[in-house]
Amino acid sequence: MSTTPSQPPTLNDLLASARTRDRYSNYDVAAAEARLRARQASRHRPPRQRTTNTVLALAHKEWTRPQDEYTPDADRAWWDLNAVSLLILFGPDADCHLKDFIASQYADKAGALVFACLLHLAGDSSGARFWWRFAAGVGHLVAEYCLFLEHAHSGEYHDAGYWRTQLMHHHFEPALLCGDRATAPLINPTHIDQVHSHITYPHHPEIGAVPLPQPTLVQQLRHLTSLL
User: Fold this and answer.
1) What's residue 4's pLDDT?
2) Are 102 and 137 in contact (CB under 8 A)?
3) The 3-state secondary structure of 115-175, one letter per residue
4) d(Cα 148, Cα 150) in Å, to the nearest integer?
5) How far apart are CA 49 and CA 27, in angstroms?
């Protein structure tokens, strides 16, 4: 007796029989795509726009607190990171910390923070992250905060969550250790560009190129912070 062969299942049939249907029924896919596009655009925005857009820079008067349950979006994290870096550079002892950093053969954690913040504003994100990690590794809480913001800006939420946990463990309050968010100065990017000639990038066999400050960078930092 002949039989009629059954039709192979269609794609719709296979999807209909999937075991995890409607797992994310309440998830707004369009909004998620918009957030990803915004993060991507922010990540590739030219550094000059990042440091000179006064409207965006002054939009927030309060720090993002690690105690908050959410990770800040890319723009908010970026402007907070700029504000921290500027307040560190324009602090009363920044040049002395940088000088100690060089004199100690790059072992001073306060100087490492100053140098990392300068690298960040000069557009060297990977170099800034390297020295923030060094400073955070030896217990500098502001460096931990910078890493929390930098990872949030880059969309690396697992790493941002790690540094948030560390900051909460130390009861970190940005207003106490970073200063008044609203007083962060703005800086002309052409002035920042002048620091590049005072930084070298020797190659380390295991790490790769590592930015190091030259002694002349101390005087350049003093000149830079005297321009306001």
Assistant:
1) 56
2) no
3) HHHHHHHCCCHHHHHHHHHHHHHCCCHHHHHHHHHHHHHCCCHHHHHHHHHHHHHCCCCHH
4) 6
5) 33
Q: What is the 8-class DSSP label of residue 19? A: S
Residue 226, token pair as written in the block: 């005297």
Name residue, tokens 């560009």: 193
For residue 87, pLDDT over 90 is answered with yes
Per-residue pLDDT reduced to its tens digit, 201-222: 999 898 899 999 999 999 999 9
Q: Is the pLDDT of residue 45 over 50?
A: no
Q: Are 119 and 211 in contact (CB under 8 A)?
A: yes
Q: Which is more confidently placed, 40 or 162? A: 162
Place of tokens 């009629």: 4
- Give residue limits of the domains in the chain: 46-225
